[in-house]
Fold this protein.
Amino acid sequence: MAKTIKRKRKKTTASTTRKRKTGIVNFLKNERVHFIFGVLVAFLGIFTLLAIISFFFTGAADQSKVLNKSFWELTQDKQLEVDNWTSTGGAFLAETLVNNWFGIFSMLIPFFIVYLGLKMMKVSDFSFIKALLITAFGLICGSISSAFIFGKLFPKSHINWGGAHGSQIERILESSIGVPGMILLILLFILIIVIIFRQSSMHKIQETLINSKPTFSTNKESESPIKLEFDKINKPEEEPKPSIWKKLFAFRKKKESEIETEPEITPQDKELKTVETPFSIKPSLQPLAKQKNIGDDDFEVIVPKDEVQISKEKPEEKDSLVQEADDDKEMESDVEILEDYDPKKDLSSFAFPTMDLLKVYNTGNKPVDMEEQNENKDKIISTLRNYGIEITSIKATVGPTITLYEIVPQAGVRISRIRNLEDDIALSLSALGIRIIAPMPGKGTIGIEVPNKDPQIVSMQSVIASVKFQECTFDLPVALGKTITNEVFIFDLAKMPHLLVAGATGQGKSVGLNAIITSLLYKKHPSEMKMVLIDPKMVEFNIYSTIEKHYLAKLPDEEKAIITDVSKVTQTLNSLTKEMDDRYELLMRAKVRAIKEYNEKFIKRRLNPKNGHRYLPYIVVVIDEFGDLIMTAGKEIEMPIARIAQKARAVGMHMVIATQRPTTNIITGTIKANFPARMAFRVTSQIDSRTILDSTGANQLIGRGDMLFSQGSNLVRIQCAFVDTPEVEEISQYIGKQQGYESAFALPEVIIDTGDDKLRADDLSEKDVLFEEAARLIVVHQQGSTSLIQRKFSIGYNRAGRLMDQIEAAGIVGPAQGSKPRDVYIQDEYSLEKLLDSLR
């Protein structure tokens, strides 16, 4: 009994110590604590700077009062009055720093202290190593230089110009190298400082030294040693070897004369700029610890930390540096005459949307409800124990809407037994729906996902402002939301390459589409990406009409860029297939395999626009309510979509298709085969879940943005970021107010014989391509029915009706007779062929 009590006391003491250590570490890692310490350090630096500045004016009067006294003695003497602006403490500090340390260059110390404060406040991103080296170099060199110069000019001043450090080293150096050596040393200090702060000065010095470089030659006639001959003394038969810079100028002149004969390529004023991204911070997850006994002290709850957000609106841009050649051969191969083509030049003043346009929800910092976690843990253990299943350890990972409990069963327990208890565990937890992952991919555990009682909203602002999104270098980055471990989930649409979105009504499909579009608007310049928005509901994408001249693409003769008419959808998709074929032809002529290589060649001006080459932006096609389009147009819609999905990846065209009816006649095998990436919101049945994901799970989601993302066999549960309609509207208006292109991006025109509304139904000079086959079908079946044509050829009713009118105009069938089929005038195929020959 006593041993048990001792063990419990030891455990309690160990857990208390562990909690104290964890509390101290969390306190020191708190961003607010860092900011407060930074403010204190910055104010200390400002105080020190004021003390030193005041010392220059009042130090003579205060010197006798401060010398040979300690700081404690100065503060205790209440009758002592000093003239320094910062009282006795500042006078003592300034006397110590200036006269006893580094002289007047001690002013660098308070500046460095202020920098440290700003660094702790995360206001300055200047390199700490650079700041430390510059400060140290300035203190050492500055104190020596000021002791030599000002110490001789003003020897009787109350200021020790170089401080104790500078004065002692200056005396040693002056006795060692003399006054000329000291002057050369100070000039060396100045030269190093100029080169550090102005890199261009180094090139100017190199050019000056090269132009004045002496040449060495030997006099063969005389027996005297080698003589030094300067550039001014040259023999008439031997010319001096030209310098590298002179060769460079001659080479440029030669190239410019050659370029005049070649086709002119439009130059641009700007070079490509590289974006400097800030540091990245990745949260680490604690490893799973195996435990023998399941108790309150052994239960581990992991609360993943939120992503660090970037306070800047956009990382600063810096011009790229031009590398110079070392010798003549490298110079000729590396020198570029023309600047790189800048696709952003037309909209060089374009500003990306700011973070204040997105709403911030104050639900991300709520403390974890440990009572709820312990209660769920106990219920899971008791439910499994009731069915004879024992576990060795359990761990909880708390997410924004879901908590993942990872359990390790005892040896000999079959996984199928735990998987079959899904409904029983949901009943004991009184949860809306749980999901069991057995086993967890890449782990030796079984996962049980349980909805939280108080779910949190994942705002779009928290996702867009995260370091992970700001630093990503994807071609088409899309930030969907946060995973169970509270990490921002980002994927590259260019690598998917197409995305299928499905889910029941009201489960977050439209918000998910808006999140995809918003992510692209925050990351891609209008010259780099265009979008084709197809909205049969007519109201979902209407808010994006204001960015028509920036991001949208449409047919040349269309008034609206948002496509809502089904007949226009067919024309647009066929136009996209023509754009795809045109791009492949450009890639073939450029001898590249992908759009990225092609654009790099075009930017480097290795492709001539006179030959039809152009910069190719990415094209993202977003289709909402795909099921309605399939029901209305059938094969006319599915075939061009299948073509684009199969081939368009290499030319930068990607599709996002959304539907609320995930049935097999909507999501056919052709579509599923070419859409490997899928987003599944909550559906009502396992059959719908298998149609979308090829597995169950979507029917067990809780709704309101809860979704599963599938890329291949890996399923990731994500809470979709919430972006409200007013936020999207403000973003669109922010972009629409800026200067745009003259019109939307023009898609190529496609002449379709079957889809022109202006075509007369009875005009036999422009017959439908299916005219002869439809006529043979009518004669073979001896039934003049429009629905027969529609059913056999899988076409829409409008086109089938036009075909029937043309067949009637040719004299093959009679006029319509209400609900009865038309009369067929041609009785055999031989007579039909004669008639068709005459019509040809």
